[in-house]
């Protein structure tokens, strides 16, 4: 297994799953809810949720970011979660919005305001890149349906050599997915590309 995750969505995405059973990880407690969103953005997010591309707003639990604080910092709050286990975050003042790619272990600024993000989310290319609607539709058609606090994940994360292939995809508890991937990326993000990953210290959720 080699260090350094592949670039964002130059390759297909997604991570996690099978390691959760091996590590005995379990889900988090009740959701504390997501920050409020302006009406225009909320309408677009509602549409993405109805299409199965995002988890319900009530499912976004701030504690899911605990193992990503090394990357996202304290000021950013979890807003919504995609079906593929990525996260949309907002600044505490509600201005800039950020996208956490849990597969690639990267955080990018995607909009300077809620209105700007609402506009971007009407761009089919942006939606295809971030949410992979065709892949999600195929998974749903294959019988893989998500509960309100579940995401699609890879049994072997891409950072550990896994591929975005049907046999490597499963439904995973979102809390477990965020925790495990956050811990893995925290330990490998400074490694030069190609560095063998001989061991990881993972803490149960």
TrEMBL record:
Residues 117-185 form the T6SS immunity protein Tdi1 C-terminal domain. InterPro entries: T6SS_Tdi1_C, TAT_signal. This is T6SS immunity protein Tdi1 domain-containing protein. It comes from Pelomonas baiyunensis.
């Amino acid at each position: 297994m080699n260090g350094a995750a592949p670039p964002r969505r130059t390759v297909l995405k997604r991570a996690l799953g099978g390691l959760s059973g091996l590590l005995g990880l379990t889900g988090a407690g009740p959701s504390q809810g997501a920050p409020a969103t302006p009406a225009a953005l909320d309408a677009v997010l509602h549409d993405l949720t109805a299409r199965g591309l995002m988890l319900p707003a009530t499912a976004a639990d701030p504690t899911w970011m605990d193992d990503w604080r090394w990357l996202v910092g304290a000021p950013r709050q979890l807003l919504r979660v995609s079906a593929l286990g990525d996260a949309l975050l907002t600044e505490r003042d509600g201005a800039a919005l950020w996208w956490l790619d849990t597969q690639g272990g990267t955080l990018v600024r995607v909009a300077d305001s809620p209105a700007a993000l609402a506009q971007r989310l009407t761009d089919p290319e942006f939606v295809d890149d971030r949410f992979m609607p065709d892949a999600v539709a195929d998974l749903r058609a294959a019988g893989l349906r998500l509960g309100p606090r579940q995401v699609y994940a890879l049994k072997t994360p891409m950072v550990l050599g896994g591929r975005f292939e049907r046999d490597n995809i499963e439904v995973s508890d979102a809390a477990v997915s965020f925790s495990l991937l956050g811990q893995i990326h925290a330990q490998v993000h400074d490694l030069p590309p190609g560095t063998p990953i001989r061991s990881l210290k993972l803490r149960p959720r």
